[in-house]
Write a structure and sequence with these properties.
single chain; alpha/beta; six-stranded mixed sheet; 13% strand; elongated
């Protein structure tokens, strides 16, 4: 039977977990206080360290709810609380499992010469947790990752070397160092210091240097922004009204983008090299509807340039396709890219009959979107100059590491400019559009590319390869902006190493887990041996000190 003091300590840990989640939410748009992310990691690390697995699970769940409920609140803005809470709960479970695994790794290490390795488990587990929830179930939702809170942080340039997983690792390392520093400081002001093995200082010093290495690399890096400038026009046409029925007046949405293009070109003698419209700028299939095709042709004639639009196409069969269509000035059928990662429960309904038992909102998706089977890329001709490639990415696809990497460098062809075409009308005036824009900023650094981020309703903008931006627009306002993104052909270190950061994190975690299991088995044998130590360490009992020392 647990004592009142033990129960009080357990409750306090859960409260700290929830608080850390709330602070984590402040790091993301639209709060944009990136420094809270490492602070939140430090608090969660302190709350989990030395706890039992079941308690660590609850602490992680508390963090998850404190973080995901506010951060993903946009997911229920027009469909009710059930989908929002269900999504937040699913994402929180991944954090809870991360904390459970972390404490399983840590507890056998805490009373041995390997104590500093207990802290190393935290940033490794963050990388694996985000990898897991970004790939499962139904392809996962890699949204609200630590990396995506750091677009304005001094750590952001590290994405160039190790991608979003590496940036997450760097943020978590800073958080753990804050935790370690707080523990060390608390002992300096009078708390008893436990006996330490001779290996502590050396091992701890090595780990601190390794943890600081990503931050040092970021601080010493200025992402290159050189390259040939090309003129691009992006058009944010706006919709008649926000909400799920934003396209109830589909012709009006198309007309908004046509008129926005025509007005932008009035009095302009020099055409841009490319015009980019967002996702859903034509929900009338221009390949089958002659009126829509004529409108698109009128916009292209006014621009006197290639036109990249987002369209919903009828087919194949009973499906529909979320596509990017590339129209060349010389005419002919447009080239197309079909979205490779349709969003479950938004663009298709898995197990429709089952989930209908929970909400009839599933039937708002009357026809499922088909999944594209190849990356997209269109060669843009430039008068008097070499052509360049524009690589389309549709909406939430920008959050998927592998898809973005494959799109950036494909078949030996180097993508020179990335286009993120999105539609945020279904999320109203929430933080979703700003969160997505922040993801595009990290992608620009990660891949060393300019990004044309264009939304039907905002926010839109031109993003430079160092993550800075120009011509950013507001929500639910029509806008047309000319920009001069640079054409670049570099393959960044992040693109070269691919998934190596995640594989390395998995391997290092497996080594720590094996070490912990070995220590646990050894301690179990000691407890069963009568001639063993008089007071063997029992790792199943709550530690007397909530946050053990590290030296």
């Amino acid at each position: 039977m647990t004592s009142p003091a033990t129960r009080a300590r357990a409750v306090s840990r859960v409260i700290v977990g929830v608080l850390s989640g709330l602070l984590m939410a402040l790091a993301f748009p639209t709060h944009d206080q990136w420094w809270w992310a490492p602070v939140a990691v430090a608090l969660l690390s302190a709350a989990v360290l030395g706890s039992r697995p079941r308690l660590a699970f609850l602490v992680g769940l508390g963090h998850g709810f404190g973080f995901f409920l506010p951060t993903l609140s946009w997911s229920g803005i027009y469909v009710g609380n059930l989908p929002w809470i269900a999504l937040a709960t699913l994402e929180a479970l991944y954090v809870a499992l991360m904390c459970l695994v972390t404490t399983v790794v840590q507890r056998p290490l805490l009373a041995t010469r390997w104590r500093p390795l207990a802290f190393a488990a935290v940033p490794l587990a963050w990388v694996l947790q985000e990898w897991a929830r970004g790939t499962t179930p139904f392809g996962g939702l890699p949204w609200a990752r630590l990396a995506f809170s750091q677009a304005d942080s001094p750590l952001a340039p590290f994405a160039r070397y190790a991608g979003a997983p590496g940036l997450t690792f760097a943020v978590a390392c800073v958080g753990v160092l804050l935790h370690v520093g707080a523990v060390w400081l608390s002992h300096r002001v009078g708390r008893p210091r436990p006996a330490r093995a001779a290996a502590y200082p050396v091992l701890a010093g090595v780990l601190v240097l390794l943890a600081l290495a990503p931050a040092a690399a970021a601080l010493l890096t200025t992402p290159p922004t050189d390259g040939r400038k090309v003129s691009v026009l992006m058009v944010q046409g706006n919709v008649p009204k926000p909400g799920l029925d934003f396209n109830a007046e589909r012709r009006a949405v198309l007309d908004n983008h046509v008129n926005g293009t025509v007005r932008a070109m009035e009095g302009r003698s020099e055409p841009p090299s490319l015009v980019v419209w967002p996702e859903n700028s034509s929900d009338i299939d221009p390949l089958k509807n002659q009126d829509a095709a004529v409108d698109v042709q009128a916009a292209q004639a006014a621009a006197r340039a290639p036109l990249l639009i987002g369209a919903v196409l009828d087919g194949p069969g009973r499906y529909v396709s979320n596509a990017s269509l590339f129209y060349r000035p010389e005419g002919g059928a447009p080239e197309r890219y079909v979205k490779q990662h349709p969003v479950p429960f938004a663009e298709y309904i898995p197990y429709r009959s089952f989930f209908r038992n929970f909400s009839d909102k599933v039937d708002l998706v009357a026809r499922d979107f088909v999944k594209g089977d190849r990356t997209g890329g269109f060669e843009v001709p430039v008068r008097g100059q070499d052509p360049y490639w524009i690589i389309p990415t549709i909406c939430f696809e920008v959050a998927y590491d592998g898809l973005m990497r494959e799109s950036t460098v494909q078949d030996g062809r180097q993508a020179n400019i990335l286009a993120v075409q999105t539609n945020n009308a279904t999320f109203g005036f929430t933080a979703e559009s700003e969160q997505q824009f922040a993801i595009s900023r990290i992608r620009a650094i990660e891949h060393g590319r300019s990004v044309v981020h264009v939304s039907t309703v905002g926010v839109s903008g031109f993003i430079n390869p160092d993550g800075t931006y120009t011509s950013k627009t507001s929500l639910f306002t029509p806008a047309a902006r000319f920009g001069e993104p640079v054409v670049r052909t570099e393959i960044t270190p992040s693109d070269r190493i691919g998934q190596l950061p995640e594989y390395a994190a998995a391997g290092a975690t497996a080594v720590l887990l094996a070490l912990s299991c070995g220590l646990r088995r050894r301690n179990a044998r000691v407890r069963r041996t009568p001639a063993g130590p008089a007071a063997p360490v029992d790792h199943e009992k709550e530690p007397a000190v909530a946050t053990p020392s590290v030296s």
